[in-house]
Structures are given as structure tokens and as C-alpha cells.
């Protein structure tokens, strides 16, 4: 094998590793039982906020938003118009939904920008599951934030802040965030323009 062939093989291997890491993210973080994100996200609605451009889309801030939560599931997206803005969705839990002794009893999955769950037996009331967890479309505001978001594993404790937004394009396409944690179904997901993002390690662990 000559140098050119070795170089091409190396590039192919790097591309394969990158593909597997992106489309089949592995690993899971466990901290044992306990509520690690006790508080629900905080939100302050905004009126008449100036519009700005991001990735060729018009962005209108609707609310200041901050959250600390456990990552119940993550899903990468590279297709569909939404992926121009949001490459990753997180299903997030807070309160008792940040306790892995609870969410380990819930079958959680994500598909087509939705978050689904089912149980054999409810570990906590249905309404608490619905109001203490959410699917959030993450729009990184910078490359640094994007790298941090893409490094997240299931079970991570994360802290982030930014804005809930409406995104629009010149041809009339629109994507709008939910502004409440109590809704369910179509339109209930948060669309978060993420300006700060951290993966936390609980104290004493």
C-alpha cells in the first residue's frame, strides 16, 4: 500500500468514526438515585424584542430561558429544514424526573422531533411526568456551545440559558417555541437559542 492509499484509508477511517459518533452516540452517565435538578426551568417572556439573523433565518426572541436538568434522551438530526438550526434534541427532566430511580422505569425515545414515553407502571403520576419533562430543540448560538451540546450523553446533568424563539425564513416557513411546560403533543416542544451551556458534575460525586 502506497502513501496515497494509506492517506485515503486514514481519511475514510476518520470519516467513519465521526459518522458513528454522530449518528450512534453511545455512553450513559449514572449518578445513582436522587433528585439532581430540583427546580423547573425559569422563563421571563419578552415583548417587542428585536429580530436578528442566524444561519439565514430570522430569529425573534420570545422569552429569556434558563434550565438545569437531566438528559433523559438525546437525538441527532441532519435532515429536514429544522436541522439547519437545531442539530440535536434533548428530552430533559427536572424535579423527580431528574432521578434515575424514576426515569429508569420509563421507556423514553425520540423520533421525528418528538419525545415519546410509556410505562408498565407509573413510578410517579402521569401529570408529573408530563410537566417535569420536555423535548427541547437546541439551537447553538456559537461553535463552542455546539461542541458542548454535541458532547452530551444520556444521564448528564446540564445547565444552559438563552432564549425561547420563533424562527422564520423568507419563503414563509416558521418554527415557534412552546412558552409553557404544561402543554403536551404537537407544538409543546421548546425551541431554545442556547447562549450558555455546561455539563455539570453533582457535588460529592
List the helices and strands and how they pair.
Elements: H1 3-23, E1 42-45, E2 52-54, E3 57-76, E4 88-93, H2 100-103, E5 107-111, E6 114-118, H3 126-131, E7 133-140, H4 143-150, E8 157-168, E9 174-176, E10 190-200
Parallel strand pairs: 7-10
Antiparallel strand pairs: 1-3, 2-3, 3-4, 3-8, 4-7, 5-6, 8-9, 8-10
Could you please describe the fold and organization of this structure?
- The structure is a single chain.
- The chain is α+β, with helices and mostly antiparallel strands.
- The chain has one domain: OB fold (Dihydrolipoamide Acetyltransferase, E2P) (Beta Barrel), CATH 2.40.50.
- The protein is built from four helices and ten strands.
- It has helices at 3-23, 100-103, 126-131, 143-150, and strands spanning 42-45, 52-54, 57-76, 88-93, 107-111, 114-118, 133-140, 157-168, 174-176, 190-200.
- The protein has a five-stranded mixed β-barrel. Strands 5-6 form a two-stranded antiparallel ribbon.
- β5 (107-111) and β6 form a beta hairpin.
- The chain is globular and about 45 Å long.
- The N and C termini lie far apart (49 Å).
- Residues 3-24 have low confidence and may be disordered.
Amino acid at each position: 500500500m502506497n502513501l496515497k492509499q494509506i492517506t485515503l484509508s486514514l481519511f475514510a477511517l476518520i470519516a467513519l468514526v465521526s459518522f458513528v459518533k454522530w449518528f450512534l452516540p453511545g455512553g450513559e452517565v449514572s449518578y445513582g438515585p436522587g433528585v439532581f435538578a430540583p427546580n423547573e426551568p425559569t422563563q421571563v417572556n419578552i415583548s417587542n424584542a428585536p429580530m436578528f439573523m442566524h444561519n439565514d433565518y430570522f430569529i425573534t426572541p420570545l422569552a429569556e430561558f434558563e434550565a438545569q436538568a437531566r438528559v433523559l434522551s438525546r437525538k441527532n438530526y441532519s435532515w429536514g429544514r429544522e436541522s439547519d438550526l437545531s442539530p440535536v434534541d434533548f428530552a430533559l427532566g427536572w424535579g423527580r424526573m431528574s432521578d434515575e430511580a424514576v426515569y429508569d422505569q420509563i421507556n423514553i425515545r425520540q423520533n421525528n422531533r418528538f419525545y415519546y414515553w410509556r410505562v408498565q407502571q407509573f413510578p410517579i403520576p402521569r401529570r408529573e411526568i408530563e410537566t417535569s419533562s420536555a423535548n427541547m430543540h437546541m439551537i447553538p448560538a456559537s461553535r463552542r456551545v455546539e461542541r458542548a451540546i454535541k458532547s452530551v450523553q444520556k444521564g448528564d446533568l446540564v445547565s444552559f440559558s438563552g432564549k425561547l424563539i420563533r424562527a422564520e425564513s423568507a419563503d414563509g416557513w416558521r418554527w415557534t417555541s412552546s412558552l409553557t411546560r404544561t402543554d403536551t403533543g404537537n407544538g409543546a416542544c421548546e425551541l431554545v437559542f442556547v447562549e450558555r451551556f455546561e455539563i455539570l458534575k453533582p457535588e460529592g460525586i
